Protein backbone atom coordinates (compact mmCIF):
# COMPACT_ATOMS: atom_id res chain seq x y z
CA UNK A 1 0.00 0.00 0.00
CA UNK A 2 1.29 3.44 -0.95
CA UNK A 3 0.84 5.58 2.16
CA UNK A 4 0.90 8.78 0.12
CA UNK A 5 3.52 10.56 2.22
CA UNK A 6 6.67 10.20 0.12
CA UNK A 7 8.54 13.50 0.04
CA UNK A 8 7.04 14.80 3.28
CA UNK A 9 9.24 15.97 6.17
CA UNK A 10 8.99 14.41 9.62
CA UNK A 11 10.38 15.33 13.01
CA UNK A 12 10.84 12.18 15.09
CA UNK A 13 11.76 12.63 18.74
CA UNK A 14 13.54 10.08 20.90
CA UNK A 15 14.57 8.36 17.70
CA UNK A 16 18.01 6.98 18.51
CA UNK A 17 16.59 3.60 19.55
CA UNK A 18 13.46 1.74 20.57
CA UNK A 19 10.02 2.83 19.46
CA UNK A 20 11.18 6.21 18.20
CA UNK A 21 13.72 4.57 15.93
CA UNK A 22 11.07 2.11 14.75
CA UNK A 23 8.87 5.03 13.71
CA UNK A 24 11.71 6.82 11.92
CA UNK A 25 12.65 3.65 10.09
CA UNK A 26 9.09 3.03 8.91
CA UNK A 27 8.75 6.60 7.66
CA UNK A 28 12.10 6.56 5.86
CA UNK A 29 11.08 3.37 4.08
CA UNK A 30 8.00 5.24 2.83
CA UNK A 31 10.19 7.96 1.33
CA UNK A 32 9.65 10.48 4.13
CA UNK A 33 12.57 12.80 4.89
CA UNK A 34 13.30 12.71 8.61
CA UNK A 35 14.99 14.85 11.20
CA UNK A 36 15.66 12.63 14.18
CA UNK A 37 16.34 13.93 17.67
CA UNK A 38 17.74 12.41 20.86
CA UNK A 39 20.09 13.46 23.65
CA UNK A 40 22.95 11.02 23.06
CA UNK A 41 24.99 12.26 20.10
CA UNK A 42 26.94 9.06 19.49
CA UNK A 43 23.94 6.73 19.57
CA UNK A 44 21.89 9.18 17.49
CA UNK A 45 24.57 9.42 14.83
CA UNK A 46 24.70 5.62 14.65
CA UNK A 47 20.91 5.53 14.26
CA UNK A 48 21.09 8.04 11.40
CA UNK A 49 23.76 5.96 9.69
CA UNK A 50 21.59 2.86 10.06
CA UNK A 51 18.65 4.65 8.46
CA UNK A 52 20.78 5.86 5.57
CA UNK A 53 22.10 2.33 5.03
CA UNK A 54 18.61 0.80 5.01
CA UNK A 55 18.17 -0.99 1.71
CA UNK A 56 14.43 -0.25 1.78
CA UNK A 57 15.03 3.52 1.89
CA UNK A 58 14.32 5.30 -1.41
CA UNK A 59 17.60 6.81 -2.56
CA UNK A 60 16.42 10.42 -2.47
CA UNK A 61 15.19 10.25 1.11
CA UNK A 62 17.08 12.55 3.49
CA UNK A 63 18.07 11.77 7.08
CA UNK A 64 19.17 14.61 9.35
CA UNK A 65 19.84 14.51 13.07
CA UNK A 66 20.17 16.91 15.97
CA UNK A 67 21.55 15.81 19.31
CA UNK A 68 19.45 17.79 21.78
CA UNK A 69 17.13 17.43 24.73
CA UNK A 70 13.74 18.10 23.14
CA UNK A 71 12.21 18.64 26.59
CA UNK A 72 14.13 21.90 26.98
CA UNK A 73 13.65 25.30 25.36
CA UNK A 74 17.26 25.21 24.11
CA UNK A 75 16.76 21.75 22.64
CA UNK A 76 13.66 22.77 20.72
CA UNK A 77 15.37 25.94 19.53
CA UNK A 78 18.26 23.86 18.16
CA UNK A 79 15.86 21.59 16.28
CA UNK A 80 13.82 24.39 14.72
CA UNK A 81 17.01 26.22 13.76
CA UNK A 82 17.74 23.31 11.42
CA UNK A 83 14.23 23.09 10.02
CA UNK A 84 11.11 25.02 10.97
CA UNK A 85 8.31 23.36 9.02
CA UNK A 86 7.29 19.71 9.28
CA UNK A 87 4.43 17.75 7.77
CA UNK A 88 4.69 15.00 10.39
CA UNK A 89 5.70 15.23 14.04
CA UNK A 90 6.23 12.22 16.29
CA UNK A 91 6.49 13.33 19.91
CA UNK A 92 8.32 10.91 22.16
CA UNK A 93 10.28 11.33 25.37
CA UNK A 94 11.62 8.79 27.81
CA UNK A 95 9.11 7.93 30.49
CA UNK A 96 9.64 8.90 34.12
CA UNK A 97 11.21 6.30 36.42
CA UNK A 98 9.02 3.79 38.23
CA UNK A 99 8.65 3.98 41.97
CA UNK A 100 6.44 4.59 44.99
CA UNK A 101 4.33 7.75 44.92
CA UNK A 102 5.37 8.46 48.49
CA UNK A 103 8.92 9.07 47.29
CA UNK A 104 8.10 11.59 44.54
CA UNK A 105 8.55 15.23 45.44
CA UNK A 106 7.35 18.27 43.51
CA UNK A 107 10.49 18.35 41.35
CA UNK A 108 9.87 14.76 40.22
CA UNK A 109 6.32 15.62 39.22
CA UNK A 110 7.33 18.81 37.41
CA UNK A 111 10.00 16.94 35.47
CA UNK A 112 7.50 14.25 34.43
CA UNK A 113 4.85 16.77 33.37
CA UNK A 114 7.43 18.88 31.52
CA UNK A 115 8.75 15.94 29.50
CA UNK A 116 5.59 13.94 28.87
CA UNK A 117 2.88 16.59 28.71
CA UNK A 118 4.23 20.10 28.17
CA UNK A 119 6.91 19.19 25.61
CA UNK A 120 4.43 17.55 23.20
CA UNK A 121 2.14 20.55 23.63
CA UNK A 122 5.01 22.92 22.77
CA UNK A 123 5.81 20.87 19.65
CA UNK A 124 2.16 20.95 18.60
CA UNK A 125 2.09 24.73 19.12
CA UNK A 126 5.24 25.15 17.04
CA UNK A 127 4.09 23.10 14.04
CA UNK A 128 0.30 22.71 13.82
CA UNK A 129 -0.54 26.09 12.28
CA UNK A 130 2.08 25.65 9.55
CA UNK A 131 0.61 22.24 8.77
CA UNK A 132 -2.87 23.76 8.60
CA UNK A 133 -1.70 26.49 6.21
CA UNK A 134 -0.32 23.81 3.89
CA UNK A 135 -3.43 21.63 4.22
CA UNK A 136 -1.71 18.52 5.60
CA UNK A 137 -0.37 17.51 8.96
CA UNK A 138 0.05 14.44 11.12
CA UNK A 139 0.99 14.61 14.80
CA UNK A 140 1.46 11.35 16.68
CA UNK A 141 2.15 11.37 20.40
CA UNK A 142 3.76 8.20 21.70
CA UNK A 143 2.21 7.82 25.15
CA UNK A 144 1.55 4.54 26.97
CA UNK A 145 -1.02 1.79 27.46
CA UNK A 146 -0.93 2.91 31.12
CA UNK A 147 -3.19 5.80 30.06
CA UNK A 148 -5.97 3.22 29.66
CA UNK A 149 -4.80 0.72 32.25
CA UNK A 150 -2.63 2.44 34.88
CA UNK A 151 0.32 0.63 36.44
CA UNK A 152 0.89 1.48 40.10
CA UNK A 153 4.67 1.90 39.94
CA UNK A 154 4.35 4.20 36.90
CA UNK A 155 2.35 6.91 38.64
CA UNK A 156 4.46 9.75 37.24
CA UNK A 157 3.83 8.50 33.72
CA UNK A 158 0.15 7.78 34.39
CA UNK A 159 -0.44 11.34 35.55
CA UNK A 160 1.61 13.28 32.98
CA UNK A 161 0.49 11.27 29.96
CA UNK A 162 -3.15 11.40 31.01
CA UNK A 163 -2.86 15.18 31.08
CA UNK A 164 -1.58 15.15 27.50
CA UNK A 165 -4.40 12.82 26.50
CA UNK A 166 -6.98 15.26 27.80
CA UNK A 167 -5.34 18.17 25.97
CA UNK A 168 -5.22 16.26 22.68
CA UNK A 169 -8.88 15.28 23.02
CA UNK A 170 -9.73 18.96 22.75
CA UNK A 171 -7.19 20.39 20.34
CA UNK A 172 -7.54 17.54 17.84
CA UNK A 173 -11.21 18.48 17.43
CA UNK A 174 -10.54 22.17 16.89
CA UNK A 175 -10.54 23.85 13.47
CA UNK A 176 -7.27 22.02 12.74
CA UNK A 177 -9.31 18.93 11.88
CA UNK A 178 -10.98 20.72 8.97
CA UNK A 179 -7.59 21.97 7.76
CA UNK A 180 -6.13 18.52 7.15
CA UNK A 181 -4.27 18.19 10.46
CA UNK A 182 -4.84 15.08 12.55
CA UNK A 183 -3.54 14.54 16.07
CA UNK A 184 -3.57 11.06 17.56
CA UNK A 185 -1.95 9.22 20.44
CA UNK A 186 -0.25 5.87 19.97
CA UNK A 187 -0.27 3.79 23.14
CA UNK A 188 2.38 1.06 23.37
CA UNK A 189 1.98 -1.87 25.69
CA UNK A 190 4.90 -4.18 26.38
CA UNK A 191 7.47 -3.80 23.62
CA UNK A 192 10.96 -5.25 23.58
CA UNK A 193 12.80 -2.03 24.43
CA UNK A 194 15.19 -0.68 27.04
CA UNK A 195 12.22 1.01 28.71
CA UNK A 196 10.56 -2.36 29.36
CA UNK A 197 13.79 -3.80 30.71
CA UNK A 198 14.17 -0.80 33.02
CA UNK A 199 10.66 -1.18 34.37
CA UNK A 200 11.22 -4.88 34.94
CA UNK A 201 14.50 -4.14 36.70
CA UNK A 202 12.65 -1.78 39.02
CA UNK A 203 10.05 -4.45 39.76
CA UNK A 204 12.80 -7.01 40.38
CA UNK A 205 14.44 -4.70 42.90
CA UNK A 206 11.12 -4.14 44.64
CA UNK A 207 10.06 -7.80 44.78
CA UNK A 208 13.43 -9.55 44.98
CA UNK A 209 12.51 -11.81 42.07
CA UNK A 210 14.87 -12.46 39.13
CA UNK A 211 14.25 -10.14 36.19
CA UNK A 212 14.06 -13.13 33.80
CA UNK A 213 11.19 -14.60 35.83
CA UNK A 214 9.33 -11.29 35.82
CA UNK A 215 9.81 -10.89 32.07
CA UNK A 216 8.45 -14.36 31.45
CA UNK A 217 5.52 -13.75 33.77
CA UNK A 218 4.69 -10.47 32.00
CA UNK A 219 4.90 -12.15 28.61
CA UNK A 220 2.37 -14.77 29.67
CA UNK A 221 -0.20 -12.09 30.55
CA UNK A 222 -0.27 -10.94 26.92
CA UNK A 223 -2.73 -12.83 24.70
CA UNK A 224 -0.17 -12.65 21.87
CA UNK A 225 2.28 -14.42 24.22
CA UNK A 226 5.14 -12.16 23.21
CA UNK A 227 6.43 -8.61 23.42
CA UNK A 228 5.98 -6.27 20.49
CA UNK A 229 8.82 -5.14 18.24
CA UNK A 230 9.80 -1.56 17.37
CA UNK A 231 9.37 -2.43 13.68
CA UNK A 232 5.69 -3.30 14.00
CA UNK A 233 5.09 -0.28 16.22
CA UNK A 234 6.68 1.89 13.53
CA UNK A 235 4.40 0.40 10.90
CA UNK A 236 1.32 1.41 12.90
CA UNK A 237 2.76 4.90 13.32
CA UNK A 238 3.44 5.22 9.59
CA UNK A 239 -0.15 4.27 8.79
CA UNK A 240 -1.48 6.93 11.16
CA UNK A 241 0.73 9.41 9.31
CA UNK A 242 -0.61 8.33 5.93
CA UNK A 243 -3.21 9.86 3.66
CA UNK A 244 -5.39 6.81 4.39
CA UNK A 245 -5.74 7.85 8.05
CA UNK A 246 -7.09 11.32 7.24
CA UNK A 247 -10.44 10.55 8.92
CA UNK A 248 -8.85 9.52 12.20
CA UNK A 249 -8.16 12.24 14.75
CA UNK A 250 -8.30 12.53 18.52
CA UNK A 251 -7.89 8.78 18.88
CA UNK A 252 -5.92 6.71 21.37
CA UNK A 253 -4.62 3.78 19.37
CA UNK A 254 -3.63 0.89 21.62
CA UNK A 255 -0.90 -1.54 20.52
CA UNK A 256 -0.50 -4.11 23.30
CA UNK A 257 -0.98 -7.61 21.88
CA UNK A 258 -4.47 -7.75 23.42
CA UNK A 259 -3.33 -7.17 26.99
CA UNK A 260 -5.97 -4.55 27.83
CA UNK A 261 -9.05 -6.42 28.92
CA UNK A 262 -11.68 -3.71 28.48
CA UNK A 263 -14.39 -3.53 25.83
CA UNK A 264 -13.65 0.10 24.99
- The helix content is 40-55%
The counted number of beta strands is 7
The general outline is: globular
Major sheet characteristics? 7 strands, parallel
Q: SSE order in H/E notation?
A: EHEHEHEHEHEHHHE
What is the typical, i.e. mean, pLDDT? 95
Number of helices: 8
Strand order of the largest sheet: 3-2-1-4-5-6-7
* Main structural class: alpha/beta
Separation, N- and C-terminal Cα atoms: 28 Å
Q: What's the multimeric state?
A: single chain
What portion of residues belong to β-strands?
Answer: 5-15%
Radius of gyration: 18 Å
Which parts are unreliable, with pLDDT below 50 for 5 consecutive residues or more?
none
Overview of this structure, please?
- This protein has 264 residues and is an alpha/beta fold.
- It contains eight helices and seven strands; from the N terminus they run E-H-E-H-E-H-E-H-E-H-E-H-H-H-E.
- It has helices spanning 18-29, 41-53, 73-82, 106-134, 155-171, 194-207, 211-220, 230-240, and strands at 9-13, 33-38, 63-67, 88-91, 137-142, 181-188, 252-255.
- The protein has a seven-stranded parallel beta sheet with strand order 3-2-1-4-5-6-7, with helices on both faces.
- The two termini are 28 Å apart.
- The model has no long low-confidence stretch (mean pLDDT 95).
Amino acid sequence: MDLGISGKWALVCGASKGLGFGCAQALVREGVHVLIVARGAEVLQAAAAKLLADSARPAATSVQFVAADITTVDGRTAVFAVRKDFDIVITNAGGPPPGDFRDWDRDAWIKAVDANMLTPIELIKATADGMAARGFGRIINITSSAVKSPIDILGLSNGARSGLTGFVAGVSRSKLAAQGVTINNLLPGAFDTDRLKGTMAGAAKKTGQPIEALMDSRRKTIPAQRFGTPEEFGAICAFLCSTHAAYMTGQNVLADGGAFGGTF
